Amino acid sequence: MAASTLLLTLSTLLLIPLTYLLVNTIRFLKSLHRKTKAVLEWPGSERHWFWGTLLEQPLFDPKVRATGYLDAQIDFSIKHCAKFPFGFYAFYTSLRPIVSLNHPKHMREIFKKSDPKPLGFGQASYNFLRPWLGDGLLLAGGKKWARNRRLLTPAFHFDILKPYIDVYNNAVVTLLDKMDTHATDGTSFEVCKHISLCTLEILLECAFSQKPNYQIEGGRDQYVHTVRDLTLSIVDRLSNPIYTFDFLYQRSRRGRKFIKDCDFVHKIADDVIFKRRQEIGTSKTPSDRKYLDFLDILLSAHDDNGNGLTDLEIRDEVDTFLFEGHDTTASGLTWMLYSLAKYPEHQKKVQEELDAILNAKGSDTVEWDDLGKMKYLSLCIKESLRIYPPVFVVSRVMENDTEIDGRVIPAGVQVDLFIYGLHHNPQVWEDHMEFKPERFLPENIQKNDPFAFLPFAAGPRNCIGQNFAMNEMKVILARILRKFSLTLDPDHEVHYAQEVLLKPANDIKMKVKRRK
């Protein structure tokens, strides 16, 4: 009797988790079937029963990944978008049906909402950033994202941004000195390497009021190397399906290093936040400085209930600001200089415009009122961002069933907003690979759909720092092109790098010549 009771008890205990597992498996399969059926309403190429459409992706080939170049993937994407200019399906294995959009009329429907980023199990890239960036604006969703977005918006008001122009001008002096050395000895100048240090130095001063002099010490500074290693770790993890599982990745050599690097950058941010809190209420208040920095805004922000941001929330936003603001701007600047070096006729027009603006006041220092006068420079920046968008894809997960062009995308389906595909969609941009700044003249751009050009995304989750970035780019470019003329090093090949941003592999090398 006792044995049978024990057996019944054990059977019941075993049956409960098995039943729970069975019920959830059935729910998952039913949900997957519904999602797959809906996604297949979109056009697409042939898919494998398990690998989905991964087999056609060049990056799925180990030989392509071994090159370190993204060129083959970019070429594939351009051809794929020409074949499917109104969106297509993608399956990252049969378990991950995705809709990829590349046309303005479709992307508008997603960007006008505030659906969250994909952070669930198996939804790569964004989730991999979380140990580093936490729940900053990039990754946060729902009410937390809405609250923090409201609290951070004042940090990018024009009155806050205006004094930063002095930071831009001061930082670019060091960059110009380094370029002048290359002009003297005739050696090639590595653009992305030095531009990245300049933008990082600017970000740290605008964020923390720190002046680390990274442009001189950057090659040896641990923070610079650690931030670089963190971004490379994300790319490395994306290329290895086994590392999708946190349990396995965190116990690997690479995963342990990633965690160590996260701890290092977090400690730096924590120390700065702690010291700033100690300064509040003393004689060394923010009013003693010429401008409010990002940290000042974060520390003084309060919601309608009088609640401020916690130290952890502040750290997440600071880390996000540094990640999104330094590398993306450096990428945009690099490709812009590349474009002008490749097309000297446009470089000359920009220089003539800058000469007219700066000669009139007898100073090379760019002031706030000068920015609005740089019309042709602005056209060239936009055209460069169209051809080479630093953030070439963003993703959302539908919170509710969403109808697009007569097709319903079910809640829970990931939608990839393929910005590079949009900017190179032959149905949207004629001669999409050609550098034509005149596309963005007022009389031409008004003919286009407002969602045809999205280097900073759009809608409620657009890039909060886009005005900061554009102002920074204008100052740095104006100072460089005012002093130097640039040509590409004919002995250096330019390739795309396998990174989370659109960046050059092995940098871009240029010859620098002083202007008379």
Description:
The chain is α+β, with helices and mostly antiparallel strands and 516 residues long. The chain has helices at residues 2-39, 62-67, 71-83, 104-111, 126-133, 142-152, 158-161, 164-185, 191-208, 214-217, 222-238, 246-249, 253-279, 294-300, 311-342, 344-359, 368-371, 375-387, 419-423, 442-445, 466-483; strands at 88-91, 97-101, 189-190, 394-397, 402-404, 407-409, 414-417, 484-488, 495-496, 504-505, 509-514. α9 runs antiparallel to α15 (311-342) and α15 (311-342) packs across α18 (375-387).
Q: Round the mean pLDDT to the nearest integer and report it.
A: 89
Uncertain segments: none
Give the terminus-to-terminus CA distance: 103 Å
Structural class given helices, strands, pairing?
Answer: alpha+beta
By DSSP (H or I, 4+ residues per run), the number of helices equals 21
- Proportion of residues in β-strands: 5-15%
| Percentage of residues in helical conformation | 40-55%
Q: How much is the radius of gyration in Å?
A: 25 Å
Lateral arrangement of strands in the main beta sheet: 1-2-7-4
The dominant shape is: globular
Number of strands: 11
Largest sheet: 4 strands, mixed
Ordered list of secondary-structure elements with their pairings:
Elements lengths: L1 H38 L22 H6 L3 H13 L4 E4 L5 E5 L2 H8 L14 H8 L8 H11 L5 H4 L2 H22 L3 E2 H18 L5 H4 L4 H17 L7 H4 L3 H27 L14 H7 L10 H32 L1 H16 L8 H4 L3 H13 L6 E4 L4 E3 L2 E3 L4 E4 L1 H5 L18 H4 L20 H18 E5 L6 E2 L7 E2 L3 E6 L2
Parallel strand pairs: 2-7
Antiparallel strand pairs: 1-2, 3-11, 4-7, 5-6, 8-11, 9-10
